Amino acid sequence: MIRQTDLAIICPILPERLTQLRALLQQLAADISAGETTLFDRLIENHFSRWVILEEAIGVDGDHYKPQLLFASNIDGDQWDYLHGLFTVDRALILAIYGCCEGFPALSTQLSDDAQISAVLAYWRFHRVSSCGFFIGATGLSRQCIKREAALVTLLQTEIDKRVAQDQWRGRSAEYIRSELQHFVRMQSEWSWALLPERCGGWQEVVLYVGKASLLILLILLVLLPLWFPISLILMVWLLMVRQKERQDQVIDIQNWQAHYDHIARIAVDEDYVQQNPMTSITEIKSGWIRQVTLRSVLGVINGAAEYIFTRGKLGDIETIHFARWIIMDEGRRLLFLSNYDGSWERYLGDFIDRAADGLTAIWSNTKGFPRTRWLIKGGARYAQSFKAYARASQLTTQVWYTAYRRLSVANINNNRHIREGLRGEMVRADAEAWLKLF
Q1: pLDDT class for 222, splitting at 50, 70, 90?
Q2: Strand order from edge to edge, sheet including 68-76
Q3: Does domain 4-133 have CATH number 1.10.3720.10?
Q4: Which of 189, 188, 190, 181 has its CA nearest to residue 163?
Q5: Where are the domains of the chain?
Q6: CA dist list (Å): 388 to 103, 318, 370, 382
Q7: 82 near 96, Cβ under 8 Å?
Q8: Cβ atoms within 10 A of the Cβ of 167, count?
Q9: Which strand (E) or helix (H) includes residue 177?
């Protein structure tokens, strides 16, 4: 099964090079928007990528944050192989962008290619940051699989439309129509792979992986079962401590609404051009070890659930997220959230409020400015308008954003997978009818 990887690198920016960096990223964004072939198109393992300038900022309590450059990608396979390819396919652009960052090695033309690559990888390795929580909407599917299955479904839909227009299948059973489509695919050598056993991470492999993980979790629970009483007691005491902190929290209202609306306008101007949108959000974590431990624990639970439970395209009941992750950065002072999602921002936030408010609140109640909460999961995101204002205020401009399949939603991708799987094996009438309804 293909294992998708989340990659994030955060580097400090040289203040005197900030204008130059903005121009480089603006040009790259324009090339992507115009449909030009960029370095990301030449990396077949790349699903989504972004470069974002984390602007210089002063925190709520006066903390100073210097400008930083975020690079984040969702990829197939090993991140270091990917970074090696990233540098190789457009060395000039990488050197220009990271030449604007502090500590980037000056690469002499006398250095061999291997020496240059090693120096750049060492720099990236030093500045790489890890996610505390990571969700995948299409588990086990490589970029190549997603794109070729989309092409397969388009081919089948065209053939269905042609046959229907010619009235060839009037009165025919679902089993007959399916067998005709199987024959159609079999007769074309370039598409016959669709009838072969899975090679790029099917649901069967995901289920097997989850089954093994579930067995391990069950064994752990059996070991911990005798300790349920002390664990429950600890959790109760912990919740009381969190509740005490909640009573002391100060709600931070937006002071300048005109500036807030201007900020929203700058963010929204780049949204809704394709099927998906990016979200880059950064918030300050509340001070104190209780908040730190609580946040990390909640993200650990969400990470485990995303890996072993939410493996069929939905985070809870939400089926609009391709990839999402949470990163604790700046020595534990800030929380970075990155998401690639389907549809509009308003619908995306609305889905979270309606279907995952408890989880949202459990995470962001540990950050400054979040609406008032009770018992970790109550209140908070349920104050819809306050939460949306908070979310927009935390959102950053994503200077460069790339998607490998801009017209495909998570639902499309997973539906295409079910269609491809349905081409193999035998089906009774009810199953064949259900399969045809997927088109």
Answers
A1: low
A2: 4-12, 68-76, 46-54, 400-403
A3: no
A4: 181
A5: 4-133, 134-140+203-403, 143-199+409-436
A6: 38, 17, 10, 10
A7: no
A8: 8
A9: helix 174-186
Q: How many CA atoms lie within 13 A of 122 on its CB side?
A: 11
**pLDDT 10s digits, 278-307:** 999 999 999 999 999 999 999 999 998 888
For 136, 192, 204, the CA distances from 188, given in Å and listed in that order, are 33, 6, 26
pLDDT digits 0-9 by tens, 321-377? 999 999 999 999 999 999 999 999 999 999 999 999 999 999 999 999 999 999 999
| For residues 55-70, average pLDDT | 96
CB atoms within 10 A of CB 266: 12
**The two structure tokens encoding residue 304:** 């485990």
> Is residue 304 within 8 Å of residue 134, measured between CB atoms?
no
Which region holds residue 208: left if phi is over 0, alpha if psi is between -120 and 50, else beta? alpha
Structure tokens at 153: 């479904």
Whole-number Å distance between alpha carbons of 362 and 375: 9
Following DSSP, what letter does each residue of 235-287 receive, concatenated? Answer: HHHHHHHHHHHHHHPPP---S-HHHHHHHHHHHHTTSSSSSEEEEEEEEEBPS
Give the whole-angstrom CA distance, residue 424 versus residue 422.
5
Partners of 336 in the β-ladder: 282, 327
Which ranges of 74-142 would DSSP assign to H, the alpha helix?
79-89, 91-98, 113-127
Q: Which two tokens stand for residue 204?
A: 């069967």
Among 404, 400, 371, 398, smallest CA distance to 386 is for 371
Instruction: Tokens for 403, please give them.
Output: 């998607």
Residue type present at position 286: K
- Phi, psi values for residue 395, rounded to 5°: -80, 140
d(CA 289, CA 332): 10
C-beta of residue 47 within 8 angstroms of C-beta of residue 79: no
Lookup: tokens for 100 = 């604007």
